[in-house]
Amino acid sequence: EIKIIFGGAHFTVKYKEALNNGADIVVLKEGEGALPEVLDTGFDYKKLSRVKGIAYKQGNKIILTKPRPFLTSEQLSSIHPYYDKSFRKLTNMAVIETMRGCPYNCEQCGVTNLYGGHYRIKSIEWVIEELKRINNIGTTIFYTADNIAGNPKHLSDLSLAIEKENLNKKFGVCQINSISLRNPEVVKSLKRMGIRMVCVGYESMNPKFLTDIGKPCSVEDNQEAARILREAGIWNHGMIMTGGRDTKESLKHTLKWAIKNLDSAQFFPMGNIPGTRFDKRMREEGRVLCEDYSKADGHHVLVRPENLSPYELQVITNNMYFKFYSPLNNIRRIIKSPDKTFAIALGIYTNLAGGVTRVLKSKEHLEYLKFLKSVS
After folding, report:
1. Rounded to whole angstroms, what are the CA distances from 203 to 103, 124, 300, 338?
2. Which one in 116, 224, 340, 375 has a CA-CA gap of 20 to 30 Å to 236?
């Protein structure tokens, strides 16, 4: 008798899948406006038909309502998330969104489809109020904007307000692209906000790879960003994609660069996120290898690369982890790290606690390696 409502990035694209597997209603794209309206209908079909931006099932028929416009900056600046007491006790990380959307449209990324092709900024007043509301949640704060420096002037003004309100004491983490870091004022702003770690989507040091996926950043941008972060004393967490047109040589070069320039790294075989141009192209070319969503965790080769077999790419990607987090490389990073305590903890996790081994040598992962070998 309970009504089940789905939402989020995946089911915005796969709403039929949800409705055919137990969901009553799917809220598409942004949910802040649509979800309250859905609840106000009392699940009456006539009223549901007037709610924009949803899909629902009436008998055996799937109904898709008219699209809902993206929320404006003013609307986003009027809505605060709700955190109950149990959540506040369970997490060590507070989360805040200062802006939404992205003007770029990289082939493999689902952000533009979900949030639109431009930045919508939340007001500085909203951010300050929200920071005060979540100030007692955990010791770390994660700024979730896909590029926190999408509007450098807004970031600068925001950082001054955060500093003035003394809300920059937590361990701050944000996401940013390498081009933005070339603006000196952006780095100053991050420091004022208390940002001690940035997550940068470098993707690759293979220029052909970057061009293929439509990445706006160049190899030179990546190199300069890494230098700037080192000089600024900000932890540089690099996110690297493998696959596409990569070769053994290009991946070897990318790993060498990562070991030299990054404080921590993730190596992701390119995944075909539903609804992206990359997913469409991979399906048209017959290169999708696996439809099991449980494998879409960034640790499994899901599509056939151009210049390597799927098995080769998986083994190389796994070895990039093992080599990057080898005991010797961990010691070297501890010596030059901007946060030696964090670097030591990461070394203990990846080596002594077997953090990497637990994932890449698990029974499930070894079984997947056998599968990839069979299709290579």
Report:
1. 18, 31, 16, 23
2. 116
Q: CA 261 to CA 195: how far, in whole Å?
A: 19
Please state the φ and ψ torsions of residue 241, each to the nearest 5 degrees: -100, 145
Sheet holding 195-203, edge to edge: 93-96, 140-143, 171-176, 195-203, 235-242, 264-269
User: 225: which 2 tokens?
Assistant: 């960003």
What is the model's pTM? 0.93
**Residue 176, φ and ψ in degrees, nearest 5:** -160, 160
Percentages of the chain per state (helix, strand, coil), in multiples of 5: 45, 15, 40
Q: What is the pLDDT of residues 64-77, one digit of tens each?
A: 999 999 999 999 99
152 token code pair: 């450098």
The DSSP secondary-structure symbol of 200 reads E
DSSP string, 274-323: TTSHHHHHHHHTT-B----GGG-SSSS--B--SSS-HHHHHHHHHHHHHH
> Do residues 155 and 175 lie in contact, with contact meaning Cβ atoms separated by under 8 Å?
no
CB 301 within 8 A of CB 372: yes
- Name the pLDDT band for 1 (thresholds 50, 70, 90): confident
